[in-house]
């Protein structure tokens, strides 16, 4: 097909072209040139490039080895016109959005607590337990719990291989079922009134729809994946991808751990539904555990300033790390996440399509409870201290989960102003003595940061 290129004119006679072409070029024939085909071939490429530009990380394959910083955003060379004046539809809007996000990250959710908490406490139930949080086994530093072998020896807890698996086996062992609708909050209190929380979920059908889409996205992204040894978590018995800020003992520095499998975790972290779930987690963390949230927010702010980075697992998250546990039927074996921060909470969101009365329960070994854990619901509890597992769901049902947490080693390194204890000892012996002295009181101080029923204004007979 032949095409003619001619200067176009408006109805008033003005030419579109900024110049007047000479007469010899007034009509040019382009034989065998299919412009429509060329345009259609380039449209998909443009869409991919735009998607990549909006993502905080490139969606190409990410190496599974640790990186000192998250993968950089794709660089874009500005056009000559953008150098003169920022586009009002791009640059200004982007700048305003960044400012709003920075303000939200700085302010957090704590400012709304006085308004929200009375409403939450109206529907909150209380379940008293016979445990004393202060008696949970913590290592000498106070940052992490004792390791699994020592913990099992002290508590008499069986190994994952020897522990019950089915609901009936747990019931036969003396456990009881804690009925929970997954929406209304329930406070689990120790003998001194210190609490951790079955948070629930927003009473919003839109949130449940977002949770379902998030589960479907995890299933879609993991379909056909061949899991490597690093992603097959033998300690927890699930296929999992972790991303976030970790501390390297070998290199004595913080690094961003990028999950493998062609950047699946990065795609999930930037999904709008995942962000909505993570935002709810952050708000619940701020409302129910204000001192822990304030400390965690200050910690991650200090960390990012030191590393000159703005990258978090989720925009509003105060946790440094996230784990995506992939189905089709996630069911962790009995374990403790003993390397997590001992005095902090771990946030677990259950996803999937299953009957929470027949499976998917959260086993809290030390409390002798099987907690019904419906899809879309959130539980905040100290996973470093309490041995936990899941009851398997029934055949044909599906379950996955999202876990947010902070390693104790990261907390220690940030608290020590990004120095190891050996470095402090060599540079400032007096400060080193103070660091050692703080170990003896750290765990007791951490327990005092946990809210009590009295502080929340909840009084029980």
Automatic annotation (TrEMBL):
UniProt region (Disordered), positions on chain: 1-21, 58-90
Biased composition (Low complexity): 74-88
Entry protein name: Uncharacterized protein
Species of the source: Mycena sanguinolenta
Biased composition range(s): Pro residues: 61-73
